[in-house]
Amino acid sequence: MVLAGPSGVGKSSVVHELRKLYPDLWFSVSATTREQRPGERDGVDYRFVTADEFDRMIEKDDLLEWAEIHRGTHRSGTPRTPIEERLTTGRPALVEVDLQGARNLRKAMPEALLVFISPPSWEALVERLVGRGTESPEVVERRLRTAKEELAAQDEFDEVVVNTDLRSTAEQLLKLMLDKSSSHQLENHE
């Protein structure tokens, strides 16, 4: 299952809640060239790599998708091998990416279930982004412009889940993921 949605919609919070509901949930750890932030753990939050290592991953086709982030300040991508290994066990895997990443994953893995996390309203999204107080007004404005583009693309997804409440959103995602996993296992046994 691939999750995407605009900045501020609560994807990380929903994933955290989903992992509480389903502790065995396997979550893809993205590779990134950006600097590690305080409190982040390599191999848990991200796999921190050098630009040269990232280039080698691209050359060896080790990434299902990758992109330049925030006007080329760094690159992030989804490592191929861990996901393929997980899927061969027949158990679900979760990937969280942006719109571009979701589009690229659709091409790389057409069988993936793409789920768009949507805010209850535009006003709620603006309130969440501004309310964070972690970004400058310029960054908030850029994220809101990007959010408009992302919201316009939600029809490209298999499912749209409105994040009105963390618990119910996580429960909806869990049901979608387990339904997809069950149907995939049935297909493989026929």
UniProtKB/TrEMBL annotation:
Family (UniProt) = Belongs to the guanylate kinase family.
Just give the chief location class: cytoplasm
Question: Is ATP-binding included in the keywords of this UniProt record?
Answer: yes
Taxonomic superkingdom: Bacteria
The protein's gene is named gmk
Q: What class of enzyme is it?
A: transferase
Please list the residues that bind ATP.
G5, P6, S7, G8, V9, G10, K11, S12
State its location(s): Cytoplasm
UniProt entry tagged with the keyword Magnesium: no
What this protein catalyses is: GMP + ATP = GDP + ADP
Q: Which of UniProt's keywords are assigned here?
A: ATP-binding, Cytoplasm, Kinase, Nucleotide-binding, Transferase
| Molecular function GO terms recorded | GMP kinase activity
Entry's EC annotation:
2.7.4.8
What sequence ranges are listed for the domain Guanylate kinase-like?
A: 1-178
Q: What does this protein do?
A: Essential for recycling GMP and indirectly, cGMP.
The name under which this protein is listed is Guanylate kinase
Q: Where is the signal peptide?
A: none
Kindly give the InterPro entries that the UniProt entry links to this protein: GK/Ca_channel_bsu (IPR008145), Guanylate_kin-like_dom (IPR008144), Guanylate_kinase (IPR017665), Guanylate_kinase_CS (IPR020590), P-loop_NTPase (IPR027417)
